[in-house]
Amino acid sequence: MRLFRRRYSPLKVALAGAVFVIFLFILQKDVGNKDRSEEPWLKNIVQGKDQVLDLMLGAVNNIRDSMPKLQIRAPVRQEEPAPGARSCLPGVYTAAELRPLMERPPQDPASPGADGKAFKKDQWTPEETKEKERGYEKHCFNKSVEIKARCPPLPTTSVVIVFHNEAWSTLLRTVYSVLHASPALLLKEIILVDDASAPPASCKHLVRPPIVRVVRQDERKGLITARLLGASGASGEVLTFLDAHCECFHGWLEPLLSRIAEEPTAVVSPDIATIDLNTFEFSKPVQNGKQHSRGNFDWSLTFGWEVVPPRERQRRKDETFPIKSPTFAGGLFAISRSYFEHIGSYDDQMEIWGGENVEMSFRVWQCGGQVEIIPCSVVGHVFRSKSPHTFPKGTQVISRNLVRLAEVWMDDYKEIFYRRNQQAAQMARELREQLHCKNFTWYLQTIYPEMFVPDLTPTFYGAVSTGVPRASRWAQSSARSSHGREVPETLGLGVLYLNQRAGGFWCSRRVRHQLAGPWRGRFGLWLTVKELESGRAGLGRVTGWGTGGEVALG
């Protein structure tokens, strides 16, 4: 045992370990500098690995379903992210750190006391004189002037609420929350539009306040026509539309009207908080700090929610600033009545409801306005999992509404929405020309650059199917490409997923199916073949969410 210890002393063991580490370092350096082209088999493995990774990263896009969804879901509240590390050296402040906690909103130069100008008045009423004297006595300055100088006037509003077979409890909850939480000086009227409820709604206990009026459509024509009916009889300077299952709280109205007073072309929506449909618990946005959601859309023209992207967060100076939104939910918003009429109001050829919020969003942005969410205004809303109402002409009216939307506002991008001819909406397009509206390219590049745009002219398009047992087992079909070329009958494409199962892709005319992805729920997959060589598919591109990867197929 002593011989063993003397022979292998700690110094010798450490020396042997150091020699071994140096040897590994030299070996790794030699292998790393070796040209990959000298080992074709290694190059193929690396390329194959890169292709599979690109495929997995790009396999998800935002085309979920060609059939429109019937319900708008509640926005998903995001958790407050952990504060990031400082990007500047110690002792150096960033521009964000030097920014004031709250930015001063724009002021009218002609308003009383603007830019430090004196507020002078030649004649005072007896009541104003008493108020001035009380201010001097209590505060030793003219308080009455200070109050007048800092509060610019806000426009009045007419609140329009459409209902059809609505539960009386929720309708009353909505109406009385408006009455209780809106300044009398600003609330001109509440107009309730009964969209042919059966039996006809008895509103005697609602019309007692003289400010509340009720109008009725004897025939079910839907949300769009009913809102136009309510707007036609409104007298307020601003139209505020609310769903019949909302709850307003103190301070909800003033921020909306203030923004419209600053920017008459702004179409503003409150920060919508969820009211639980089971317990009616009110989820206040303040619980999640500075995290907000804004409206978006997918290429099936379905409305959705997304987290405000970094570009918009950087643009906003503080938490009081509006959030520019590509689209809005459409159930709760305010708009200047004159601007509403200027842009042509709603498309009155749309029936019942569905797509009108996305259509209005495109119309506003492309015709010189802006869609915004006002964080300082909070309104609760009951998001139902399904609609309790029927469609007199069937749910195909939603598809018809979306076709009108695409034809009028989306230019060549409408081909992403559908690959078939549809009747053009000539009257609506003429209105767009009269208003000198911008095109859809401007909308995507300026307002929603985060939106992934699929190829407008794919070589061909078809269907994606899962469940093919082997990657070599291809479906056989015959089809034509979008350029009119015949596609070989033996053409078939395979897609490899994260779980190593193969999915088959085959051509079919003007068809797109829903793909149930093997990870993170359901996603749509959009695959376009870019080249045809020697009668077979050469390259396929799987694209989604702004990323994509080339993969050899066929």
TrEMBL record:
Membrane topology: Single-pass type II membrane protein
One Pfam family of this chain: Glycos_transf_2
Keyword Transmembrane set for record: yes
Main location: Golgi
Keywords noted in UniProt: Disulfide bond, Glycosyltransferase, Golgi apparatus, Lectin, Manganese, Membrane, Metal-binding, Signal-anchor, Transferase, Transmembrane, Transmembrane helix
Family that this chain belongs to: Belongs to the glycosyltransferase 2 family. GalNAc-T subfamily.
Record-given protein name: Polypeptide N-acetylgalactosaminyltransferase 6
Species of origin: Bubo bubo
